Amino acid sequence: MSGYQFDFTEHGPYGAAMRLLRDSDLRGKVVLDLGCGAAAVAAPLTGLGATYVGLDVDEDAVTKATERGIEAHAIDLTADSLLADLRAVVGERPVAAVLCLDVLEHVTEPSQVLAAVTELTTVNPEAELVVSIPNVGHLDIAARVLVGHWDVTESGLLDRTHLRFFTDRSLSELMNAAGWYEAAREDFRLPESDQHWAGHPVFERGTNIGALLELVRAGADEHGTVNQFVRRYHRGLPRRREQQLPEQPFATVVVRTTGTRPDTLTDVLCCLAAQTTLDFEVVLVAHDVDSTVPLQQLVDQFEGNIARRVRIVPCTGGTRAHAANAGLDAARGDYVVFLDDDDLVTANWVENIRDGAQTHPGMVVRWFAAEQRRVWLEPGKRAKHAAVGPLTATYATEFDFLRHLRQNETPFHCFAFPRVLATLGMRFTENLTVCEDWDFLVRAASLCGVFDTGEMTSIYNKWGSKNSSDLIATDEWQAMRTMIHVSMDAKPILLPPGSVRGVDVLLAELEEARRTISAQRAELEATRQSLNDYREVADNAHRALAELRSSTSWKASAPIRAAGSLARRIRNR
Amino acid sequence: MTDVAEQDRAHPSAGVTTRAADDATPTSVRVAIVAYANPLDELWRCVRALLRSIDNAFETPGVELNAVTIDLGDCSPRRLLTNEDAAALSAACPSRVRFEYRWFGRNLGHSAGTNALCDNAPEDALLLLNPDTYASPTLFLRMLRALRDGDVVAVDARQIPAEHPKHYDEVTGTTSWASGACMLVRTPHFRGVGGFDADHFPSYVNDVDLSWRLRLAGGRIVHEPTAVVFHDKRLTVEGGVRPTSSEEYAGLLGRLVLLSKYGKDDDIADLLDYLEEHGTTTQASAAEEFRRRRASGALPETVAGADHVAEFTEGEYGRRRF
């Protein structure tokens, strides 16, 4: 905290801190700069009409500031008497703002400093608090740790005098607990911080691994390149951290419905109600439904054991992927699984997922489905729909990543994924009108790997009419497929173990196929050539014959040929 | 369990409906559930759903339903329910629903167990229900309504997730036979044909036999696809319904006995020939047992004049949709 000689620049964190106070009325009021060091922000604050007061434990720094005509006092932020010391400095003067620029990370108990500031400003509740604090969640630090380094420096992200380290989340928790709530931010970003290791493939974004790490970090939150959090806070009531987390089920089953198929939705809820384990919740996403009342009535028809597990989440507009994201956002379970409102599952559907997740935690759990053809029946029939074909095993029993890059072999209700994927930025791609499940599965599989349970616990209803696969034109499927491939190709992708041999086999098959095609083409060409030769001979013969027949000698000898022919017939009798 | 005044308070619609003269809808039902070594969770699942479905029927305006008894018959070697369990299940019942539990102390089989539960039942109709089921909220109501017409003597529900492939008329619902996994049958007709043939069909194929005898007696059987019951069937990796351990043997033996009972000697010969050639060990055992019974005269007497109800199509009972 002492001895730093940071200069003020408009483009640095201090400049950002000053801009956060630009619209505040500082005139004639005190701005306390805790840990002021060389009082780098004294001039700009004075320029805004504030009464700048610098405070620092370093008496030399205080003396130097005082010599420059700046009000400064020696104060130890860790002293038990901090509040009294601050009050003594401020006196009766109104406080407009308190600055903690590169300070809180230097004290063992920043909450005590904040508590003193909170208490001090009780008489000036409009006072603001501006904080600048290093981000330990910078991607460069993560990369350093990944390669086994924790390199403390004289200054910077891992300054040797830092006692506490903050991420965006932990900073917010600290501030909220002290009763300070964020009003504005101008975080100082440095894509290449002082911890960057130039030329190292783990750090460089242009490398595969560098790009992958950036992808993972960027998915988690938007603070991977923030060097300093620079934020302004206003006062509020301290928020206590939740001591008891709400009940968290093992799984969240997301059912998307447009409310137009109550019969099949009832069947789906029956399937869920009959599960052998009830350690799940149901998020029923009502997509573009005018009123959720009929849906709630349908749910309320069920006994409480299932009805109380169902939450209806309204969702308006957007694609089916938008509804999927609404379900994902509402999910609380460790694992998330989707079940459309017209498919069916066996009673061990959730149990099978749970068993898979227990033996292979963190992985995508996959099983497979039987397909059954169903049709909607015309009015007047006893039922609205009926099965018209047997259960058939049409889907791949084992997940093959490479094959899934080409086409989806896993219905949406045949895989479950850890919900924490959402905290890595995994979302359903909302500009996809179809195939959103395929796109998500491949990306999830790339990150998590896939565990096949080997069980068939789902039934995919293939409707003869009125379903999306019939209504959506082939060219739309093709367009979406292209979009997915373009999107996937924009980022590095992890291949699961076994992929090398898989690719090798595919390439070998391709080479063999090319050889075969090449050989057959050559054979075809030779055959064509032979045919052409024969045609030429035949054509020549025909031409010669035609010439002969049109010749005078041929016509003149006609009676002789006729006599010869008659003689041959007589001999042959 | 409650007096009439209390019932009326609980169900304002009760007692104010007028019933059409030709309305043959049952007004009281006994639910017969035969259990054997079922997990307690499964029994609770079954009863929980059933109670809700019954309650929904009670609450439906225009439905004249006076009383329902749920009779759980336990064929397990040890009691599945303690007194406390039975009391808890009983306490879960709404008014006008009574829960009874009987431990038979021996494995009677589904047929004899059901017959025992239904013996002397005063209710209009009997809902025969497997314990590994989950009734949809409207199952009870829709099963009742399917018996509105007097000529319909039994109805079965649409089973999910594996829908039964048997054929039914898409408009009238008329079908060859009703599945005993979830069948509502009029008590007088059930009793009139002697209930299940427990001697020859202790647990399997008994529903087909019962249905055909009901039809021989002039009754109509219907399938009600809007009445949905979840039947806890598991699937094989090939997409088939996974049979229970005893199903392969008992099901095949039952099929052979059924063919014999309805005079299908040619079909028996074909089936036995096929089993001789392609049958599994279990199937061979069933065929052997059938031959033994035939030799010892232990097969049922042939039912005469049953060709119009005893429909065997490509080895299956009745026609199939797929």
From TrEMBL, chain A:
Gene3D superfamilies given in the database record: Spore Coat Polysaccharide Biosynthesis Protein SpsA, Chain A, Vaccinia Virus protein VP39
InterPro entries in UniProt: Glyco_trans_2-like (IPR001173), Glycosyltransf_2 (IPR050834), Nucleotide-diphossugar_trans (IPR029044), SAM-dependent_MTases_sf (IPR029063)
Chain coiled-coil ranges: 503-551
UniProt keyword list: Coiled coil, Methyltransferase, Transferase
Domain Glycosyltransferase 2-like positions: 261-390
Any GO molecular function: methyltransferase activity
GO biological process: methylation
One Pfam family per UniProt: Glycos_transf_2
CDD domains registered for this protein in UniProt: AdoMet_MTases, Glyco_tranf_GTA_type
Name of the featured protein: 2-polyprenyl-3-methyl-5-hydroxy-6-metoxy-1, 4-benzoquinol methylase
Organism for this UniProt entry: Labedaea rhizosphaerae
Lineage of the species this protein comes from: Bacteria, Bacillati, Actinomycetota, Actinomycetes, Pseudonocardiales
TrEMBL record, chain B:
Gene3D superfamilies assigned to the protein according to its UniProt record, in alphabetical order: Spore Coat Polysaccharide Biosynthesis Protein SpsA, Chain A
Domain Glycosyltransferase 2-like: 40-171
Pathway(s) per entry: Cell wall biogenesis; cell wall polysaccharide biosynthesis
Gene Ontology MF terms in the entry: glycosyltransferase activity
Keywords of this entry: Glycosyltransferase, Transferase
Family: Belongs to the glycosyltransferase 2 family.
Protein name (record): Glycosyltransferase 2-like domain-containing protein
Organism: Labedaea rhizosphaerae
